Hints:
The chain is mostly helical. The protein has one domain (22-262). It is 51% helix and 3% strand. It is built from eleven helices and two strands. A two-stranded antiparallel sheet has the order 1-2. β1 (174-177) and β2 (180-183) form a beta hairpin. This is DUF4209 domain-containing protein.
Amino acid sequence: MNDYDDYEDDQPVTRIKQNAASQKQLGQQILKDAAQYLEEISADEHTLLIKTLMDLSAQDAYFQVLADELDQPIGAKFANDALNLMHFWPMIHQFEAIEQFDLLDMINSEYFQTEILKAFDALEIDEEIKAKRRLVLLESLKMYKLGFYTGCIPNVYAQLEGILTDILLKTGFLKQNGTKFVDVYKIVPGLKANEIKSLWHKSKIAIELNPYFAELAAYKMDSSSNVTMTRHNMLHGTDVENFNQARSFILFIWLFSAVSFMSTVKA
Length: 267
């Protein structure tokens, strides 16, 4: 069972007039610089990049998706998460010997943690919940470093949805009623009392807030990604095969991509 199965009726959502001020793409400079880096990368380094990702696909199939995305000709459109990964790839040049470089260890670097916290701190969400989420993020980073992936992965999956919920509340697209969340503009059809039940619903609403949400891999509620397809079963206890460092790494890249974008989303 997958989260997108929670709502199978694919009726058109209610369209909301876009706020021009909210159309800025978060992390736009990061994406631009990453694309430029890919244009200028040497053939040898590009070969190493693709080989590194393909080797890691033995641990999680999504690395093959990233490899395919980045193994395109100059001028191609690259996926958001692939470009955000490339924001950190140049760290390889800090190593005198390539053999010393471990891509998965990048999450433990001061640079990655500084960048993700900087993006998180720029979010415009409720300050009380933001302070609590920051502690959860720090704990997730600690668990990654310690190799406690069975704790790290559920945390990051949960924060990806939780931060999206915070943004939708702050911008007025969701309203909290006790423990329930209501679709204020009745964007998603067929909901009883307009009550939101899943990440699928929130993703639909987010795209109405800003169409660029559709570019974020974490919020694509379809079968195109094994990371999305296995989310439900991992969080509900029936999938115990994917609690590993590779999946944790991908989720942190997704989280960085998401908070980088959402830090520019305004009400």
